[in-house]
Write a structure and sequence with these properties.
Helix content: 55-70%
Radius of gyration: 19 Å
Strand content: 5-15%
Number of helices: 3
Structural class: alpha+beta
Strand order of the largest sheet: 2-1-3-4
Distance between the termini: 65 Å
Order of helices and strands: HEEHHEE
């Protein structure tokens, strides 16, 4: 093997490691979000939380059960938004706005979403 072939193999290994670490990153977040989904769906159905105007979950009422679950969900969303922003060569704020609009459009009947002015509305 010459130095050029060794270099090609080295670069290929680095690319594989980077790709596999990104897959592990995505799989970890996906699994955590999947595990939290029943609690989040229940809180949304009860009108306790909703989708805020920045693409995160927010409390609609003064009652705040499962704050740790909501904080963890928002942290994972932030990590995803940062990844998308970097991938798309834009800012996190742009991704947040896009996701907020998407999530507001997807709210189910009886669930809450927040308008840009900060007011909560029930679908």
């Amino acid at each position: 093997m010459n130095i050029r072939e060794i270099f090609k193999i080295y670069v290929l290994l680095i690319v594989c490691l980077i790709f596999s670490s990104q897959l592990a990153f995505a799989d970890g977040i996906k699994e955590r979000m999947k595990q939290r989904l029943p609690v989040i769906a229940d809180l949304k159905a009860k009108g306790i939380i909703g989708e805020d105007n920045q693409g995160y979950l927010g409390f609609v009422t003064s009652e705040k059960p499962h704050q740790g679950v909501i904080a963890a969900e928002n942290k994972d969303r932030e990590m995803i938004y940062m990844h998308f922003a970097k991938q798309q060569k834009t800012t996190v704020n742009v991704v947040e706005k896009i996701q907020a609009n998407r999530k507001a459009e997807r709210t189910k009947t009886g669930e809450f979403f927040q308008n840009q002015d900060g007011s909560w509305h029930k679908r």
